[in-house]
Amino acid sequence: MTNDDRIGPPLLGGERETLRAFLDYQRETLAMKCA
């Protein structure tokens, strides 16, 4: 398995920023698994 360089989504913050960070994290996870 490759090195996990993903940055986890923040636990605190505004709703929009938290959602965007969570979606970016999920996109990075999918890209890592499909690589």
Describe this structure in words.
The chain has 35 residues and is mainly alpha-helical. Helices cover 57% and strands 0% of the residues. The protein contains one helix and no strands. The protein is elongated, with a radius of gyration of 11 Å.
Provide the fold topology.
Elements: H1 15-34
Protein name: Mini-circle protein
Organism: Streptomyces sp. SID7499
The share of residues in helices is: 55-70%
Quote the beta fraction. Answer: under 5%
Order of SSEs: H
Largest sheet: none
Dominant shape: elongated
| First and last CA, distance | 10 Å
Radius of gyration: 11 Å
Specify the structural class.
mainly alpha
Poorly predicted ranges (pLDDT <50, ≥5 residues)? none
What is the count of helical runs?
1
Overall mean pLDDT stands at 88
Number of strands: 0
